[in-house]
Structure formats: C-alpha cells, structure tokens
Amino acid sequence: MDRVSKLIINWRTDKHTRQAAEDFLNDLKGRVQNRFQLSTDNWLGYASDKGAVRGVFGDSIDYATETKFYAKAPLRLPIRRWFMPQKVVAVRKRVRIGEPDLKLTTTSHCERTNLSVRLFNRRFTRLTLGYSKKLENLRHAVALFIAHFNFCRVHSAHGQTPAQAAGLTEKAFSIAELLESAI
Prior knowledge:
Layout: H1 18-31, E1 37-40, H2 44-47, H3 52-57, E2 62-70, E3 88-97, H4 108-120, H5 135-151, H6 162-165, H7 175-182
C-alpha cells in the first residue's frame, strides 16, 4: 500500500510461505520502477538475512521492520474477552537494507487496510457462514474488494479514491462502471 495515496499496489491471497512472499515481492518489484521504502513486520520469511526481501530486491530498496510487543494476557480470560486485542507496550524499528526513514516505518497502514478487508468482506470473518472454504472463491472476493477500494471508495485521508490520488484516473468509479470496465 502506498503511504500517501492509500493505493493498494499489489496483493496476494495465498499461504503464509517463503515462496508466496517471493512471488508477492516479485510482483511488487515489477510494479514500482524507482527505489522506494518498504516496511514489514519482523516475519523471518521477509526480514531475515536470507529472507524474501533481500532475495528479490537485493540492495535496491530502503527496507525496515517494525516489531510490536504486546502485554501478556491473563492465563484465564473470560470467554467474552477471547477476541479482545492486546495492548501494545513497545515498538521496535530496525533498518534492514539501505537508508529507510524510521519515522516513516510503520505497519499501521497495512493493519488498517486488513481491518477494512475483514470489515467489508465477510469471507475473512471467522465463525460466520460467509467464511471462505475454497481458495479460488476467496481470491475472487479479494480482487473485487481491491478494485472497489482503489477505484470506487473515497478515502477520508484525501477526499478522493486511491486511484485518483495516485493519478491513475480523474474520477471515482461507480460500482457499475467498475464492473463494466472489468468485462
């Protein structure tokens, strides 16, 4: 996700594996022409010295990780508190490649987008009838969500769609226009 325009540049719906991370990052590399700053969490598939980020980009980006530390949960939580988020007690940012600006290093933008995905796409909501059981159906649902997010949904940060903010289109699409352009 682009920090300024909020455009979702690329995405991948797959298992949480090193190969999926490499495929995702190779797709990103093909979409962004210039050197840029990348921020991720501290998952070893991305962040280690032999991780996918270094394997795909080498030294051609500025890359940092952000690790959040959470308060320990009580051993026995009442059932209604199982899904309560834990309090963040510390955040550590670390330079991995190049010279990233640690003031801009954050995973919060992606975490907020993940919340939007779960909120507006019931296939990501566990314990409901809408939960996806087939990966192909989930991929289609995510593609529709991303297209709507980028081209139809006006973002509160800048009063336009992410595609408008990125200069990809001059107007917000209606859902009908979005679906017609996909045909």
